[in-house]
Amino acid sequence: MLAFYTIWFSQRNGSTLLCKGLESSKVLGHPGEIFNLNGSKSLISKYEAKDYSHLQEIIYRLGSGSNGVFGIKTNAPKKEDDPIINELKLLPVVKDNSPSGNISNFAVWEKIFPNGKHIFLTRRNKVRQAVSWWKAIVTNEWHRKQGDSPKLPIENISGKYDFAAIKHLLIEISMRRALKYSV
User: What is the Cα–Cα distance from 40 to 12, expressed in whole angstroms?
Assistant: First the structure.
């Protein structure tokens, strides 16, 4: 029996660093962005699964450590018509336990990751988070290893400051936070 936890994150709040730390403990699974399609059309095609039973096995294998702890990192919240959630409804653990197919996103998650723990990762300074997010968009640099040089020197991006874009991201962060806690 696996023990499950989900890290719910938004952009630029330290989730990658946290997940790398959890994984390096060697007892807390492999909390990665398993449900990030990265350009694929579906999870089944991304993982080249034969069917949804095989996809279910792949998902559990990817996030699980040798001691049975499973971790996953996912961007939240998921809207009701989310294509990932709709695809997850086809996993045997969900489909076999909800024959009508009429099931909420919360119930889908609970069937896949029963009795799971939830970590809602936030960043206190939302303005800095929005600026960091904008900087990542402009530079296309989302992660940098310690000691590596930035892709673009700061002087190359200073002219790309866009108040309206940063304000939009700040609103997006605030809306996601509100939705996360309204469930």
Answer: 23
- The distance from CA 164 to its chain's CA centroid, rounded to whole angstroms, is 26
Query: How is the chain split into domains, by residue range?
Result: 3-120, 126-180
pLDDT bin (cut points 50, 70, 90) of residue 10 is confident
Taking the C-alpha atoms of residue 107 and residue 114, their distance in angstroms, rounded to an integer, is: 9
H helices present in 71-162, as ranges? 83-88, 92-95, 105-112, 126-139, 154-157
Instruction: Name the 3-class secondary structure at 74.
Output: strand
Mean pLDDT, the chain, integer: 89
- Whole-structure pTM value: 0.84
Residues 146-173 have pLDDT tens digits of 888 887 777 777 778 899 999 999 998 8
Fold annotation for 3-120? Rossmann fold (3.40.50)
Q: Backbone phi, then psi, for 71, in 5-degree steps?
A: -125, 145
